[in-house]
Amino acid sequence: MQTNADLVILNIGQLVTCSSDGKPKRGVAMRDVGIIEDAGVACIEGKIAAFGRSKDVAAAFASTDSIDADGRVVTPGFVDPHTHIVFAGNRLNEFELKIEGADYLDILKQGGGIISTVRRTREASIEDLIEHGISRLDKMLACGTTTVEIKTGYGLDPATELKMLAAIGELDLAHPIDIVPTLLAAHAFPPEFADDNDGYVDLICGEILPQAWDWYTRSHFCEERRPIFADVFCERNAFDLRQSERILKTAKALWFGLKAHADEFTNLGCSRLAIELGAVSIDHLDAISDDEIKLLAASETVGVVTPTVNFNLGSTHFADARKLIDSGCAVAISTDYNPGSAPCPSQPMTMALACRYQKLLPSEALNAATINAAFAAGAGNSAGSIREGNQGDLVLFNTSDYREIAYEFGAEMAEIVVKNGQVVFDTHQA
Fold first, then answer.
1. Number of domains in the chain
2. 210 to 55, 218, 222, 240: CA distances (angstroms)
3. Which residue of 2, 11, 74, 220 is 20 to 30 Å from 247, comparing CA positions?
4. Regions of the chain short of the pLDDT cut 50
């Protein structure tokens, strides 16, 4: 007697499960991607109902929606744990300045960078933010991403930060990709507080964070028990350690989960601070110290590296993800998709860069883009791996060997993307 399934995929050459023991993978465990050959998987009511040998799945499940993988690879949907895709305008002029040698922090100091996007985002309607956000999410979906964290941070005032949160909420309802919201009001100092940085910190702690938490409690994210995070950019010419500590502690007291942009250019001690406060992730880590690496390895915090930023900025220095993994840290990778430092929607491209410049093996890069990325986004118990009861988020790639996802770059190999057990992208129907 067969069970009716909503979707069955059979004859999978490599079913790459990226399964874990309920925690992010670290150390040598990141080399194990959990391959099942000649496999099948069945989805019922948006969840993975069963997986295993293809003949066993075929015998147990029947579906009118059946896919013959014909020996190709199926992985979990990618999770992107660090993005900034709700914004208006572009930074094409700064792209040219950087080519000519301008430094990222110098551009920021001169009112460019984040601030130039802030001006456009403040002027934009929520409808425009949603329209452009859907377009960017479509690009990510075509690359195999099925869950994405999205930050605010291009408002830097109460009204625009709340407008961005509202846009993020609408995008989650309108698009197949699941979204994790993060408040990043502490992204830069707005022009009106250029001479009163602590005054802006007062505004964040006294108004923006409480208003954002109130929005969250009335949102579908809260109703569905999905988390919201608060983040801070701790860096030279941005928020110093004292200011970052105040913001993160205020956010924690309001029950936000915590994330931090830490050690991107300068080591100011933010990694230590965020780990001690129980942050779900610390991101960038180009300048993290050996002592902080030891702290990270002993913690539940995930280290998120963003090689797309270094690549786009023309840097020869990348976060030492190899050292992080060998030290026992749980490492994830992210596109950091944003208009300035990383205009990249593709986790496969991020994997390719991580392998080449940070010396990750393809297996480590895949785990970093799936199961570990899911934990870095607060979604490790539902996304990022193929196990019974998880969301039916799957990607069928046009290859018979998963290593080719990172080996070949510049051409996306995702043929079919499944979200919650439903086909949401199919190159054959494009």
1. 2
2. 54, 13, 15, 22
3. 220
4. none
